[in-house]
Amino acid sequence: MKNFEVKNYRLIDFNTIIQNIPEKPMIPLHNFLLDLIDDSDGKEKSIYLNNTSNLLKEIWSEIIFMNWRILNVRDFIPNNFGITTSTFYGYKNGRKNISIPIMYNLICQWRVLCNKELDDVDKKWDEVFNKNFLLSTRSKCQKTSLPRFINPKLSYILGWICGDGNLQFGKNHYVIKISEKSINQLKFVLTPLFFEIFGVIPSIYKRYGNGYAIQIGSKPILRFLKNVMKIKIGEIPDIVYEFDRLNKLNFLKGIFDAEGYVNSKYKHSTIIISQSSEIFLKKIINLFKEIGIIFIGPQFHKTELGVWYTIRIRKKLEILKFIEIVGSNHVDKIQKLNSLRNEIEKNWNC
To answer: Band of the pLDDT at 44, cuts 50, 70, 90?
Structure first.
């Protein structure tokens, strides 16, 4: 990527923004594959695993070896998996992707038929989870990877989605959407992050009025955000409270970049975060306290457009601390924070 000029600010390198988000520390996630499925999925509507045929062959070979005298394959496969033998062999030979429920069912059948223990099921299922798999729906054209750990880059995305994202899900409809006024932020920060974390490139489109949005249609990603991360817009997921300091900081940075505002004029210098939920902002204040940043509020606002709340920093020393400790990954807000810091330091010296 080249350097681009944003509004009236000096040149910035968008690559540097991504590079400055740490990749560590990493918080391992539990085996969440079963969390991605739902009773409402039904046959052919589940999430499918790619690149698991070798493990499937290994499991099936052991089943056949241990039960070749008594196992009637033509009856066993349809009776236990609800599919034809030709479909099953398509899974085994790698011509078709196998659904998560059928793969797990196969391992459970393997335990019974090969006299394994319950611990063996967990170990084999973890072996599936730790393989370099991709996930898709029945259509092979929509493949994605899901992270098996939380790091500051994912924490930043989670913060942005919690602050101002949009998760839409229903019958055959799974969409993650983020709206933003700056197309450069979508193109050169959020899109590369989504590609790095999930292996997908979001679509960017112009919204009505002033602004743009990125949109991803992915059942695996939406189920990961909703069922594994427990994301709800305008709420703090419980998992955030278990984050280390750096992951928590980047989660808060994502919220600030999504919902924050910087007044860079010295006499009115302020850092503000807005939200429609007072409870959400109270929790944000407490999270910022944990990393040493003090916001005041929430303050109530009401106009003909509706009701909202704000928290803010006005003290010059606290603003400088915010800029130093938290900062921003937003192409516009980086420049505004730098401009505000320069104004404060210049007037301070005077």
So the answer is: low
